[in-house]
């Protein structure tokens, strides 16, 4: 015979074991369900990210033109030739200039428009749609449209300059090495500033209106409110926008190729255009792979440095 106390202890022990098995089953089921949901993304990342990077790393140790059936192993020679190529260094410098222009024109324009739309009394939805519309257009379409605007003979820009008596400023904007990069950067900025405007506008609308009311009571001007309230409150949004702008600068291939194809000469040959030419025009697939890997390592290093700088500034 089992006493009442012993029976109670036995029931508790059985209940505890059953509860432990139940929690373990639920934990296992949760991990299984999570794995099933993550599996498609994991397969996609492996197939279209890790495997191409691994293949580029393998090709960088060979001398291959992309067509021949044989590949000659050259070791680090391809990396050495790539790193000592002055044209690669020039394309990297042009990419930096492109990024600065993109930050000033596209991100600055997006912030300016966001501030204006945030203070607009009526028609905010309409103007938001109109300013975002260029972002949904194809880069090729935008490039063709702006190439016509820049045309030295029939382009609207030169006609406007002639009409206002500034004929001395007219030129072949895309044919002049001194103006081609800026002209293409303006086009890219026009296509992108609507996207940054949306990000900044969402951040501005989350700022406490009471801060502005208190500032107005204290006699702060609109510029002072923007400097001491709006800008500090947009710190996180600006971080995201700068990262996106940096990525966009590395993807400037579409606008450049549609308008100048890297010319005149190499005045608009960004790193993406340089790699494309090496692989598909000159048949230097291995050099293009080495250059792409070099660019990838630089992006990782710059991203880590930027994140550390952002974290230190946030802690200060």
TrEMBL record:
Localization in the cell: Cell membrane
All copies of domain ABC transmembrane type-1, residue ranges: 88-306
UniProt keyword terms in alphabetical order: Cell membrane, Membrane, Transmembrane, Transmembrane helix, Transport
UniProt xrefs under InterPro entries: ABC_transporter_permease, MetI-like, MetI-like_sf
Domain of life: Bacteria
Major location category of this protein: membrane
Gene3D superfamilies per the UniProt record, alphabetical: MetI-like
Keyword Membrane: yes
Lipid bilayer topology: Multi-pass membrane protein
Transmembrane segments: 31-54, 96-118, 130-149, 180-203, 237-259, 288-306
Family that this chain belongs to: Belongs to the binding-protein-dependent transport system permease family.
Protein name: Sugar ABC transporter permease
Organism, as annotated: Pseudarthrobacter humi
